[in-house]
Amino acid sequence: MGWCIIAVFMLMLPAGLSAQGRTPQQNAEYRLAQSYERMGMYENAARRYRKLFNSDPANPSYYNALKRTLERLNTYDELIEMIRTRLHVVDDAVVRADLGSALYRAGREKEAHKTWKEVLKKFGKTSGAYSLVASSMLRNGLFDDAVETYRLARKELKNRFLFAVELANAFAGRGNYLAATRELLLYLEQRPMQVSYVRARITSFLQEDETVLSVVEQKVNSQSAPRNELLQIYGECLVNTGQYAKALQVMEEIEDARAQQQKQTVGREFYTLAEKALQDADYEVAEQAFSRILNKWPESRYATAARLGRIRAWIASGERERSLAELDLILAENKKNTLALEAAKLKGRLLLEKLDRPARAYEVYRELFRNFSSRTTRKFAAKMLGLSAMRSGMHEEAESWFRQAMAFLKDNEIAEKNTILFHLASLQLCRHEFSESLQLLDSIQSEEDKAAIMGSIVNEALERALLIEENLADSSSALAGYADYLCALEKDDREEAGKNLETWLQQYDGSALTPRVLLDLADLYHEKEACTEEKALLQRVVQEFADTIYADEALFRLANAYAATGQKELAAQAYEQLLVVYPNSTYLELARKKLRRLSQEIKP
């Protein structure tokens, strides 16, 4: 590679010198030819480059320009003669390799291979000649010949490390990721400082072929004491293939070695592994990896994050009271630092979302609001105070905190503003203030990023607004009863929500909202695994409200319910009915897939 860079530099140097010796007429002609070339007028460009080259065949600028243009025009016979003319004044490996390429493109394959062999015979004492010939072969699609040329260089120059990267690139380009990995591991053996590059390439190969891991594993097993750099790649491969327990053992070796040599980064491998294991729901390995950092290197720069990470692993695995106790300990030891801030956020979410203790969460977020003065933190705390108050049924406090959160927003924080507006609209709905709720929903702005819209509150706000508009005129009392159900959901009180819907059906059955209520109540029965009650409600929607927008959803869910309870024939019939009766349903593709699977299962 270095030889090639020097060769290119040597080619460039005379060009600059020749430019100084050009006549004004030659300079003008050269610039005109370049203009023609840039415009794609290659014949005009070639005519002027040809004139310049004939006047000075030794000039590399004229040579390269004419060669480039003749290749564009596919005039290889002239190109061959031009290169041979050049050889009379400059006989080097570069020009001879060009001749081989031109001969090959002209269909004179035997002469091309003979020419390339002559390059290696005459200039083969350095790796540069092999590089030129192999590159020329690759440009002409001669993959196998290029590989043999690289391998010949290793043999003749007695250097097994030569062209490892070039061979890896060639193999990867042909989809042979196993051979590419072997070459990269050979390169790593010679250049251990390039571990980041090698690791990135090999892990990218894993996405195409997971058997790449076996090549790395063989390399590790072939050595009695593998280098740390090789173990890093092995550990990364194990992580990327989800083998977290095995990766933990490998990371242990890496970290023990790092503790002796690079104390400032000790714990990094464990932390990276723990985060990926946590993301992939392997909570046991995540907890073990976080604990390794805390137990072995409590002074590590990753220790603070590991302490919080271990709590997240506990929460995810259901150890919530243990998590709460550890968070309380952190908050008792720390007051207004970053650790206290993150611990308070985590504790608030644990209390609100996992332990259903909104009143205690409210107290946590209030302390957070008091103790930290940054705009971002106070905005977050105010929003979470609003949610906690809302969940506790303290509607006035919730509205006050949401409006305070709104005051901390910047103009470009549209998504956050929309979320808060939706919460305020929900509060008004709980109060049966339907007009005010509609005004807040209408003030929610569309977001420019279409991907963000799909995961934002915008679509939900539109559906809520349509629900209010369509049913307010029909029956404000029925809408108020449904709002009570939505309010119970905001408090995450599923029991109260179910009772509200059952009461609603007793009082307002037959109103425009009835199919929506039946579907929502079916959802709650599904959560409680009350399959009989769920199916009865869905059947009613299908039978009595076949012309509404809810019918296809009810039929799809009914088919799913039949399938889940082993009633495969009824499920298949329901999927078939959906395909026939509702050809524009958004559930069609899913229904087809499920029906195909069922058809295989119920074959006689």
Write the layout of secondary structure elements.
Layout: H1 2-21, H2 24-38, H3 42-55, H4 60-73, H5 76-89, H6 93-105, H7 109-123, H8 127-139, H9 143-156, H10 164-173, H11 177-190, H12 195-206, H13 212-221, H14 228-240, H15 244-261, H16 268-279, H17 283-296, H18 303-316, H19 320-333, H20 338-354, H21 358-371, H22 375-391, H23 395-407, H24 414-430, H25 434-442, H26 450-454, H27 458-472, H28 476-490, H29 494-508, H30 514-527, H31 531-544, H32 551-564, H33 568-581, H34 588-601
Question: How would you characterize this protein structure?
Answer:
The chain has 604 residues and is an all-alpha fold. Helix content is 78%, strand content 0%. The chain has 34 helices and no strands. It has helices at 2-21, 24-38, 42-55, 60-73, 76-89, 93-105, 109-123, 127-139, 143-156, 164-173, 177-190, 195-206, 212-221, 228-240, 244-261, 268-279, 283-296, 303-316, 320-333, 338-354, 358-371, 375-391, 395-407, 414-430, 434-442, 450-454, 458-472, 476-490, 494-508, 514-527, 531-544, 551-564, 568-581, 588-601. Helix 11 runs antiparallel to helix 12.
**Unreliable residue stretches:** 1-20, 450-455
Name the assembly state. Answer: single chain
Approximate helicity band? over 70%
Computed over alpha carbons, the radius of gyration is 36 Å
Mean pLDDT: 91
Envelope shape: elongated
